[in-house]
Amino acid sequence: MTLNLNDLVRGGTACFSKAGLAEGTNDHTIKTAAPNGAGVDFAISGLSYHKADTDNIAPTVCDEQALGTTCLYVVTLQTDGDVVVTKGNEVDNDDLSGGYAVLDWPTPPAGECPVGAIKVAAGTTAFTVGVDDITDDVGTGTITFYDFFAVPSSPLTS
User: Fold this and answer.
1) Which residue has the higher pLDDT, 11 or 154?
2) pLDDT for residue 2 is more than 80
3) CA-based angle 50:17:33, to the nearest 5?
4) What are phi and psi of 25, to 5 degrees?
5) C-beta atoms surrounding 88 within 10 Å
6) From 3, 110, 134, 139, which residue has the greatest number of CB atoms within 10 Å?
7) Cβ atoms of 59 and 45 closer than 8 Å
């Protein structure tokens, strides 16, 4: 018996184009800037949606991340194109670099499409997404943006 994609996918949620997540132009913001310039195409529960490239998106204010930790934040789109940021679990930077811990991807809220994530490695200062500026206020830490088709199945090991 041959199965095609139509036989397998029912009510799928996925991002069909690279969102181009990045720091926004204004302080405390992020943006979507798809490399093809056409915005983000995504599906939630089998229905297709589109979000035009948008700058200066005010991310959801999350709980403060402690200094000396790394944390993943999943970025999702709602059916109306609103952006939601969900904080994952913090991991001590030394435990992560020493191979004693991994970074698990946060579970996206139900009914929303994960389009990417932000990894914040806070250095000498604590950090709060939605309050602190993405790159200026992370202290000696680093910020990494990821674009998704769906949430990866394996945790990050560094």
Assistant:
1) 154
2) no
3) 80
4) -65, -45
5) 21
6) 134
7) no
φ/ψ of residue 22, rounded to 5: -160, 175
Q: How many CB atoms are closer than 10 A to CB 6?
A: 7
Beta-ladder partners of 65:
127
pTM above the 0.85 mark?
A: yes
- Residue range 102-128: mean pLDDT, rounded: 93
Residues 6+ apart with CB under 8 A from 150: 13, 14, 15, 114
Residue 120 has pLDDT above 80, yes or no: yes
When the candidates are 3.30.70, 2.80.20, 2.20.70, 1.10.150, the CATH number that belongs to 5-147 is 2.80.20
18 vs 21: CA distance, rounded Å = 8
Q: How far apart are CA 55 and CA 30, in angstroms?
A: 7
Domain residue extents for the chain: 5-147
